[in-house]
Design brief:
The chain is α/β, with parallel strands linked by helices. Strands 5-4-3-2-1-14 form a 6-stranded mixed β-sheet, with helices on one face. The N terminus and C terminus are likely disordered. The structure holds 4-methylsulfanyl-2-ureido-butyric acid. 4-methylsulfanyl-2-ureido-butyric acid binds next to loops.
Length: 332
């Protein structure tokens, strides 16, 4: 109805998914998505947010010699024959959605992608993951691979979209650990950031972090929301997927940094919150009034500020860090 369209209060569902096994077919997975979308409609949702790579198992955990052998994990069109039922149901229900999937373009480029679909079933935004974690070579010493840097090219930007009566941005999984992600979105006026994830609990390069996965997940989602005065919806693919335990704990975070809704299982589950987009201005118009209080001219001076008192070894490490931001060396 008219009042609903004008409202800046959205009902948003974080549609966490349980594992998708290798044997699960695309139509079976889409059926699960449609079921979650219907639950969202029943709960009054305007928008249902699905995770990263929501149509397949997290295939970067396996090496293939020839990338073409993995083509079946990618979508070459959106919607395609298997995903059209989700779009049709969204339009019928009048519920929008966010969906992560592997994209293979007609020019042969491969991306870890998310789209934003409005309540009429039209695609209003597409995002290609910027921060690709893991490694690009087969590393047999690992219990499982994390080959995103082999399977995907990096996207080249964060954009915002006028949708759902507000300003909506997207990021994908590892992006959420980087403050730049939220800040670049925030500088464009983002009020609602949608972030799907597949986070293995075991981190092979430093297993000491395993017990902290849940803490780090909420730490970055909550601080990103607060420091940029935006709502953040973090949605997992969770549970035991092909022998790999994936973190759940999907959450909807308010601009205050508080958790407004939280998933409590490792399966298909919808966590719903009333998302008042006008709450953002309470932060971006006061404490985090970027235009008034940020000091970009100071931040740009960081290299020049390093004086001769910095010990040579530290200086070398700092220089290395600055250089490596242009050309990454280490691979996690
Ligand atoms: N999918 C994804 O980006 N997962 C990463 C795992 C990091 S370890 C290789 C994450 O940041 O959650």
């Amino acid at each position: 109805c008219e009042e609903r369209t004008m409202s800046r209060v959205l009902t948003v569902g974080a549609a966490q998914m349980g594992p998708i096994q290798l044997a699960d077919t695309r139509p079976e997975v889409v059926e699960r998505l449609v079921a979650l979308l219907r639950s969202g409609a029943a709960a009054g949702c305007d928008l249902v947010v699905f995770p990263e790579l929501a149509l397949t198992t997290f295939f970067p955990r396996w090496w293939v010699d020839d990338l073409a052998d993995a083509d079946h994990f990618y979508e070459t069109e959106m919607p395609g024959p298997d995903t059209r039922p989700l779009f049709d149901e969204a339009r019928r229900l009048g519920v929008g959605f966010h969906l992560g999937y592997a994209e293979l373009t007609s020019a042969g480029h491969r991306y870890n992608t998310a789209i934003l679909v409005e309540r009429d079933g039209s695609i209003v935004g597409r995002y290609r993951k910027v921060h690709l974690p893991g490694h690009s070579e087969h590393e047999p010493w690992r219990a499982f691979q994390h080959l995103e840097r082999y399977y995907f090219e990096a996207g080249d930007g964060f954009a915002v979209h006028a949708a759902f009566g507000g300003v909506v941005g997207m990021a994908i999984c590892n992006d959420r650990r980087w403050p730049e992600t939220y800040r670049v979105l925030g500088l464009q006026g983002c009020e609602l950031a949608l972030i799907g994830y597949n986070t293995p609990i075991h981190y092979a390069p430093d297993p000491a972090q395993d017990r902290l996965q849940g803490f780090h997940n909420h730490l970055v989602l909550q601080s990103g929301a607060y420091q940029n005065g935006m709502w953040v919806v973090g949605v997992a693919k969770a549970g035991e997927e092909e022998g790999c335990a994936l973190l759940g704990e999907s959450a909807i975070i308010a601009p205050s940094g508080e958790i407004a809704a939280l998933c409590t299982t490792d399966g298909d589950e919808l966590a719903v919150a009333e998302v008042d987009l006008d709450l953002c201005a309470g932060y971006t118009g006061t404490l985090f009034d970027f235009h008034r209080y940020r000091r970009p001219e100071v931040y740009g001076r960081i290299t020049a500020q390093r004086g001769p008192e910095v010990p040579a070894g530290v200086r070398a490490a700092l220089d290395d860090n600055v250089e490596s931001s242009a050309e990454p060396k280490g691979e996690g």
